[in-house]
Design brief:
By secondary structure, the chain is an all-beta fold. The chain is built from 1 helix and 41 strands. The protein starts with 43 loop residues before the first strand and ends in a 15-residue tail after the last strand.
């Protein structure tokens, strides 16, 4: 089988590094040495994600809920993102296209999980309060919490009101709006059963539940998430939910209370929609932002003032890759075409090809390439060649490794299942395959990570390489990581490096001298603390020129990260005893 070729992206953004203790390795003593052939302290790991995968800057946040406001007083609208960890992050942008996180702006805010933010002046003092709905399995799930900024807009200090505004059951999602048109900021709150609660404000921050209008007395589907805005004498209300539809209403003051009139807008169907009325592009235009359960964001621009119709903007928030949760990137040059292959938690396998348009990720999806290739649960795929045909090996949740052969062409793929290719290859759950020639005999071994943190090596029993496979008990048996092992190898001039991702998001690095890999001569070395992800790290390594290494990593939420290890040029290197930050 052809080896997977390498290519280094020369573009990167610098990031600081800090040493990290590697932890236990099944109770064994570990030698934390510098990898063979690399002078200590000279190499720097840099984060290249913003160039390679996410020029947008907004990470993938499942079950994302957003609010918008000029938080720091610079005249530009900021994004407030609530995530499943219960915390909020502020994102700033100059052009509305690229966003930069300020993770400390909301320090001290966040209890429970699945934070749902909104802003409104509840107590009538002229300053908006930060209002946060809580969810998940926390004891505070379903509560609406209110925070006041007692600091400044650029150096905030958030203090929580002593009591929750209300408890709506589970998974509170509030929208702040003067829904009864009396001049006071009220709240409309969704919950996990899909129902709404309307809270009227007396103007001093005391809110009381009101009877719902008849048209709103129903479930909108699980996890109702309202978005609302007042426009002079009318309030627009949008209610998203788990069913992938959004219900739209106009609220007006009638002779017998609120009059509710529904209207229809068609959107692409997504799970767990969270709508928000915004004006990111033009202050006098009412646009619509839709976040979904996979962390995707769609932006719709109003066609004309006073017209409740929107057209999707295909640029905003689209300059990032969304491969799906628990994503597992690998690289391939099978057929002479560089491709990024990504599996995910849903058992899907996606193909991406390189592109060079400025302001966009370095890859764009080839949506139909792996049509028909799907497994049950988690997927990690390796695309290679066997006897002139493309073959894709796919690990899956049950521990099997499935195989498909492309009986079509590189442009028009036709994948046919090939169970005989991986017959007998099975590990203890969550199989993560890779191919690498460990012993230098020209035939690649099939190395499979398992849920128990171990690596199993299968060696070809054929002089041609490939199947049938037999377990090689003399190799890598001493390596065990913290669960859900995902391996990748890279060969340098005088060493072989093994990167193994594990369930907590860390990436473990093991190194062996050239020629010692097959004998199991790997020793663990230190990886910088910032080279890690948010859970279930799945790395893929490639060697570049002059000892550079590119590391592509997927995480639990569905983010793709790119780290690059670079050595400075000879004239820029410091003396061996110099300390490098």
């Amino acid at each position: 089988m052809a080896g997977l070729a390498v290519s280094a992206d020369p573009r990167y953004f610098p990031a600081g590094s800090a040493a990290q203790s590697p932890g236990d390795n099944a109770g064994q003593d570990i030698s934390l040495a510098t990898p063979p052939g690399v002078p200590d302290g000279e190499a720097v790991w840099r984060d290249c994600t913003a160039v390679t995968f996410n020029p947008c800057g907004l990470p993938v946040l499942p079950f994302l809920k957003l609010a918008c406001a000029d938080m720091d007083g610079d005249g530009r609208t900021d994004l407030i993102a609530g995530g499943k960890d219960g915390r909020l992050t502020l994102f700033r942008s100059i052009d509305g296209i690229a966003w930069q996180a300020d993770p400390d702006y909301f320090a001290g805010v966040g209890e429970g999980a699945f934070a749902a933010p909104t802003l409104g002046d509840l107590d009538g003092d002229g300053a908006a309060e930060l209002i946060v709905g809580t969810g998940g399995f926390s004891s505070r799930s379903g509560q609406v919490l209110v925070y006041t900024n007692t600091g400044t807009r650029t150096a905030p200090r958030w203090e929580r009101w002593p009591d929750p505004v209300i408890d709506v059951g589970d998974d509170a999602a509030p929208a702040a709006v003067d829904y009864n048109l009396d001049g006071h900021c009220d709240l409309i709150v969704g919950n996990s059963t899909g129902h709404l609660t309307m809270l009227a404000n007396d103007g001093r921050g005391r809110l009381a539940p009101e009877a719902l209008p008849l048209a709103l007395r129903r479930s909108f589907g699980m996890y109702a998430t309202p978005g609302a805005i007042r426009l002079d004498r009318v309030v627009l209300l949008a209610v998203g939910s788990s069913v992938g539809k959004i219900a739209y209403f106009q609220l007006k003051r009638g002779a017998h209370g609120l009059a509710v009139q529904p209207f229809a807008i068609t959107h692409p169907r997504r799970d767990f929609y969270a709508p928000l009325f915004v004006s990111l592009r033009q202050p006098d235009r009412l646009d619509l932002l839709l976040a979904d359960g996979d962390g995707g964001v769609q932006y719709f621009e109003q066609k004309a003032p006073g017209v409740w119709a929107w057209t999707r903007n295909l640029q905003l928030f689209q300059n990032r890759l969304l491969p799906g949760p628990v994503c597992t990137p690998t690289r391939s040059r099978a057929g002479g075409r560089p491709r990024l292959v990504v599996g995910n938690m849903d058992g899907e396998v996606r193909a991406y090809e390189a592109r060079t348009e400025a302001g966009n990720p370095s890859w764009h999806e080839w949506a139909s390439y792996f049509l028909g290739v799907k497994v049950s649960g988690f997927a990690r795929a390796v695309l290679t060649e066997w006897e002139g045909k493309e073959v894709v090996l796919v690990g899956q949740g049950n521990g099997d490794v499935a195989a498909w052969r492309n009986t079509g062409t590189a442009k028009t793929a036709r994948w046919v299942a090939w169970p005989a290719f991986t017959a007998g290859v099975r590990v203890k759950g969550h199989s993560a395959p890779c191919l690498f020639d460990l012993d230098g005999d020209g035939r690649e071994e099939l190395i499979v990570g398992a849920a128990d943190g171990r690596l199993v090596v299968y060696r070809s029993q054929s002089p041609r390489g490939g199947p049938p496979w037999g377990v090689a008990s003399d190799c890598l048996g001493e390596i065990r990581v913290g669960g859900y092992a995902a391996p990748s190898f890279v060969r340098l001039a005088d060493a072989v490096w093994l990167f193994v991702g594990q369930h907590d998001g860390r990436i473990r690095l093991f190194a062996a001298p050239a020629g010692g890999a097959a004998a199991g001569g790997f020793k663990e070395t230190v990886m910088p603390d910032h080279v890690r992800v948010k859970g279930f790290a799945s790395p893929w390594a490639e060697a570049g020129a002059d000892g550079d290494v590119d590391l592509y990593v997927g995480d639990y939420d569905g983010n793709l990260r790119h780290f690059q290890r670079r050595l400075p040029s000879p004239e820029m290197r410091r003396p061996p005893d110099a300390h490098v930050e």
